Amino acid sequence: MVETNATPNPTPAKPPAAKKPKEPALEDKPFAEFVQEHFLPSLDQALKKAGLDDVALQFVEQTLPLTGADPQQKYWQVIGTWFTGQRQFNLYFLAANITGPKAFSCATSGSRPSTLESFMIDERKVTLDLMVLYTLQRLNGQKWLYRN
Predict the structure, then answer these.
(1) How far is residue 98 CA from its own chain's centroid?
(2) pLDDT in tens, 86-135
(3) pTM assigned to the model
(4) Nearest Cα to 47, choosing from 23, 3, 5, 78?
(5) What's the whole-number mean pLDDT along residues 9-36?
(6) Quick one: which of 113, 69, 124 has its CA closest to 88?
(7) Bridge partners, residue 104, by sequence
(8) 40 near 136, Cβ under 8 Å?
(9) Residues 120, 102: contact at Cβ < 8 Å?
(10) Distance of alpha carbon 32 from alpha carbon 7, whole angstroms
């Protein structure tokens, strides 16, 4: 057997660089923070791009504005009004999170909504972009954004 006088590597191997913690997805942020800081500004921008210059959006917790609704039960809602208050939509969060059940209603001329429709019930994953898209689709279904 032949002996070799190989010297060990004088510089030790560098430890792998520490990975930065991954930023949480927008949708993983606390409910109120996500809605106020991300959803409302994105929706406002999309509505203005669609030509609604006088849109006002608010995020409130209040009872459902429907006849027969429990006056003691409050739900988080995004309320949008425009056309000097003559058009309104409500996006209801029936649980205080974006992945829970949601509903939608709309009304004109200051009247109360007559129906409550389910909203995003088939989506497995709820994202900011999908929430904005579905809201625009509902408003367009009323012919409030684009003429078909």
Answers:
(1) 7
(2) 899 999 999 999 999 999 999 998 888 878 899 998 888 999 999 999 99
(3) 0.80
(4) 78
(5) 78
(6) 113
(7) 91, 117
(8) no
(9) yes
(10) 62
